[in-house]
Here is the input.
Amino acid sequence: MITGASRGIGAATARVLAGRGFRVAVNYRASAPEAEEVVAAITSAGGDAVAIRADVTVPEEIAAMADDIAQRWGGVDVLVHNALIPFAVTSFADLTWEQLGGKVNAELHAAYMLTKAVVPAMISRGYGRLIFLSTGLSRRPRDGMIALGTAKAALDQFVRYVALELAPHGITANLVAPATVGGTAVTGQLTPERVRELGAEAPMGRLVTPDEVALAIAFLASEDSGFTTGHYLPVNGGLAMD
Here is the structure.
């Protein structure tokens, strides 16, 4: 199950995982044509995929999506939570509590509900991979990104607690934290000049691509990552080195 998989990182992840033999549920909220294009590309290459509409902020729709996958394929072995929940780009001076509190609440509520929807069956099978998209902004602030950075920082800690509790059940939970990714909804909110500046800041001199993020996700989705849990994996071309 890949949330927000009709474009950008989600679509790239769907293609990469399908190419490695995963059956992929391409979740979308409003971009049906784009989601169907992702599915068509996967199936034409010999993979197995289905597009499923669900708003990850609505509990009933998450439950229906999980039930659909369970009936179709027997359940979810890998959850990739990539869907972007809208946020305000603003300074603290202009930030309202509704903008900050609303983003934090929506971010954690979606992660909580998705995890609750898939974990019981993972526990019963003794296997599962939970992968959540974070951002370097959760650790290193940037002007205007206070709502996103704060919400993702809360997500980071939520995932660590989930990882701790689920480790004895053979379930891993990890975070992938790309720097600014080219061709995504976030870069769409920035001016072309600012996008160029962000690319130039990285030692590699460019933005991250969706495919590069997808390849990091693919490792965490694989059996090879079975002893890797509770980690924050940056994909940033050396922009931040911890």
